[in-house]
Specification:
single chain; 561 residues; alpha+beta; 5-stranded antiparallel beta sheet; 3-stranded antiparallel beta sheet
Length: 561
């Protein structure tokens, strides 16, 4: 009786569990349908903006050995290009798969608003205004006395000719002033106005602000003394100011501006050229790293320096390579435990549970071995398809030959005589004729290296036409597909504005020191930068005695000499 009651209770509980599972399955199916409808609508809206990098994620609910299936279509279907669907399987949730397989893009709107434009160009505008005002001050000081009525100078009719007269020495000062102004203009253009700012930093560039402040103070002080010196005689009835003295005064202002420009060159351009630290940059999540020698810079300028080297030295980050294809021999074991509620055959159940636990332990211990063989097999397949691609490209390029003028005229005569069926083609037509012979090998290589989102058929044909027009070799044509660097080679990274977040515990306007650590983050990619001081190199001289550079040949019967 007790056994029957236990069985009935267990059967009732199992019936309830089946009902709850079926109800949960129906709710999940309904939620999945709503999610698929919303995703299809959003995909139709973003179809134009994502082309030619159309990427869609399809989640399925059917279980295959206790695993969910995710299909990622990374290129639109094309009859000539072949199948372009990559299936990745994993025991993850629906939300995590959609987040992990999404293409890394900046979620926010691009920084093109009025506030960003003001922040970007305000510093350059103020610097240009200060430079123009300082540059025009010496000519204005020389010209203003020649304009009557602008300044209350004590120019009496009897002394007017002698006061405004400019002799040989005065003319020499004017000529020197003109050459100094030309040199100052070229130097200011080369230092401040030659190129637009490459980065918009969150803090003020202290050295550049100090130089601009020094120029502004110098210009204001010279104008103040100029106005006081000129107008003092007119207001108090003192002696008239000679024109030669004003020219010499303007020349001294020009000399001061030249010295300030020299100081700006030393502080802004030459100070950071001497290496003082080395910085190690580690990219997450793929762990790619580089190390460089760097000079004395502030933290925010060091971040700009790091980004310049990142976009030109680092390889392209490919999120699809984070998951290698699972080996076919890998089988997922069962994670369920079986119990006998009646207490019968308890020994067999325990032995079965022990076997399951032992299998899980062995699989956990051998996971590194499986990973090693999977990576080795993946590298072998990549090398194999790379060799096939190079061979196919070399065979395809042998069918194309450039026609010179004399050969083109002879070919036209043969075509008119119906003796040669071929006609000359332009580079684009030649690319369209050659591409099908290596399309399959290229498609397989791009598929296994997960580069399909970056390269469409149109971009490949355009690149092939350019290579044919410049007489490139097959290896030169395959360089963008075989060498995944630099980052700017990726068309998605070729934007006018790249927004990064700078994270540091110290003030960003301070100089980097030994142990400084900061992070640059953009979506899923982050750069961790650690700064260390370069050691002091003690170079000692060691003199070798010339008499020690003599040798004796030892002969032995056991040697071969």
């Amino acid at each position: 009786m007790e056994t029957e009651s236990v069985k009935s209770a267990v059967s009732e509980q199992s019936t309830r569990s089946r009902r709850s599972r079926s109800h949960t399955h129906r709710n999940n199916h309904r939620l999945h349908n709503n999610h698929s409808l919303r995703s299809s609508r959003s995909n139709r809206k973003a179809e134009d903006s994502m082309a030619p990098f159309q990427t869609s994620v399809t989640l399925r609910d059917e279980n295959r050995g206790g695993q969910e299936v995710i299909e990622v279509q990374i290129l639109p279907q094309d009859d000539n290009w072949g199948e372009n669907t990559t299936a990745l399987t994993g025991n993850t949730s629906e939300q995590s798969d959609a987040e992990e397989m999404a293409v890394s893009q900046w979620n926010g709107e691009p920084d093109t608003g009025f506030s960003f434009m003001c922040h970007r160009y305000l510093g350059s505008a103020l610097t240009g205004f200060v430079c123009v005002a300082a540059f025009l001050s010496p000519p204005a000081m020389v010209v203003l006395p020649r304009l009557p009525g602008l300044l209350p100078m004590p120019l009496l009719p009897s002394h007017q000719q002698s006061t405004l007269a400019c002799g040989t020495e005065c003319k020499g000062l004017l000529l020197a002033l003109a050459f100094k102004l030309v040199i100052l203009a070229v130097g200011a253009w080369a230092l401040f106005l030659r190129r637009p700012p490459r980065a918009t930093m969150p803090r003020i560039f202290l050295l550049r602000a100090a130089v601009n402040g020094l120029v502004l103070i110098c210009t204001f002080a010279y104008w103040l003394f100029y106005v006081v010196q000129v107008t003092e005689g007119g207001l108090t009835g003192g002696e008239a100011v000679e024109y030669r003295g004003l020219v010499s005064y303007a020349g001294s202002l020009t000399d001061t501006l030249l010295f300030i420009h020299y100081l700006a060159v030393v502080l802004v351009e030459l100070r950071h050229l001497q290496p003082m630290y080395y910085i190690k940059i580690v990219r997450s999540p793929d762990g790619e790293s580089r190390s460089y020698a760097i000079g004395q810079l502030s933290i925010q300028r060091a971040a700009v320096w790091v980004l310049e080297h990142y976009y030109t030295d680092f390889p392209i980050y490919n999120p699809y390579l984070e998951r290698l294809p699972v080996s076919k021999s890998h089988k997922s074991g069962s994670s369920f435990k079986f119990y006998d509620v009646d207490g019968i055959n308890n020994t067999s159940v325990q032995s079965q549970s022990r076997a399951v636990l032992a299998a899980h332990a062995r699989r956990r211990d051998s996971s590194h071995n499986e990973r090693f063989y999977e990576e080795h097999d993946y590298e072998r397949r990549v090398k194999k398809r790379r060799a096939r691609l190079i061979t196919a490209a070399e065979e395809a390029f042998t069918h194309i030959k450039r026609l010179h003028n004399d050969q083109g005229d002879a070919l036209n005569r043969h075509v008119l005589a119906n003796t040669v069926p071929a006609i000359p083609m332009d580079p684009h037509e030649a690319a369209q004729a050659v591409f099908p012979s290596m399309a399959r090998a290229l498609q397989k290589y791009l598929r296994i290296t997960r580069q399909q989102p970056r390269h469409s058929v149109e971009s490949i044909l355009a690149h092939l036409a350019k290579c044919l027009s410049h007489d490139f070799t097959p290896r030169a044509f395959l360089e963008p597909y075989l060498v995944p660097s630099p980052v700017l080679q990726n068309e998605k990274e070729q934007k006018s504005v790249q927004t990064w977040a700078l994270i540091c515990d110290e003030l960003l306007s301070r100089s980097i020191t030994d142990g400084t650590c900061f992070q640059l983050r953009q979506n899923d990619v982050s750069l961790l930068c650690n700064v260390k001081t370069l050691p002091h190199f003690n170079i000692t001289e060691e003199v070798v005695d010339p008499k020690s550079n003599k040798f004796v040949l030892r002969l032995n019967s056991e040697t071969s000499v």
